[in-house]
Task: inverse folding
C-alpha cells in the first residue's frame, strides 16, 4: 500500500515556473515507477511524465517535453515535476501515481491511467495569460 500526497500547485502567470512534489508513504518507494497525470475541466485525465524505478528511464508527453522535468529522491520518498515556460493550456489538476511493475520507457501502458495502482488527491495548477 502506498499513499501519495501532492503539493506545490498554485496560480502562476504564463511563462512562469512551478515545482510540484509528491510525497509517498511506505518503505518501498524505490520499487515503484512514478508518474504525473493532469486533468482539465471537462477533459479526460492525460499523461504528463513518468520515471521508472531507475531514474534514467523517463518519458514525457509531447505537449510538455522540453518544458517539464520529472525527478525523484528515493531517500525522501518524493517525486517532483519541475514545470517551466508554463502556458494557459497547462491549467489542470495534477496527480501523481505509482506503478509497481517494471516497464521500458517505450511501453505504451506507462502512459495510461488505468495502469497505475495508487493515486494522490491532486493539486491545482492555474496558469493565467
Result:
Amino acid at each position: 500500500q502506498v499513499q501519495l500526497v501532492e503539493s506545490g500547485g498554485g496560480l502562476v502567470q504564463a511563462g512562469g515556473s512551478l515545482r510540484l512534489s509528491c510525497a509517498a508513504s511506505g518503505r518501498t518507494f524505490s520499487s515503484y515507477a512514478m508518474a504525473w497525470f493532469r486533468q482539465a475541466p471537462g477533459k479526460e485525465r492525460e499523461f504528463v511524465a513518468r520515471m521508472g524505478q531507475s531514474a534514467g528511464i523517463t518519458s514525457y508527453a509531447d505537449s510538455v517535453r522540453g518544458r517539464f522535468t520529472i525527478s525523484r529522491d528515493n531517500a525522501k520518498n518524493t517525486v517532483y515535476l519541475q514545470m517551466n515556460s508554463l502556458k494557459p493550456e497547462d491549467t489542470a489538476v495534477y496527480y501523481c501515481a505509482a506503478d509497481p511493475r517494471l516497464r521500458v520507457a517505450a511501453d505504451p501502458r506507462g502512459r495510461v491511467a488505468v495502469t497505475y495502482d495508487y493515486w494522490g488527491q491532486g493539486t491545482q495548477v492555474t496558469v493565467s495569460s
Notes: The first strand starts at residue 4 and ends at 7. The mean pLDDT is 95. DSSP finds no helices and eleven strands in the chain. The radius of gyration is 14 Å.
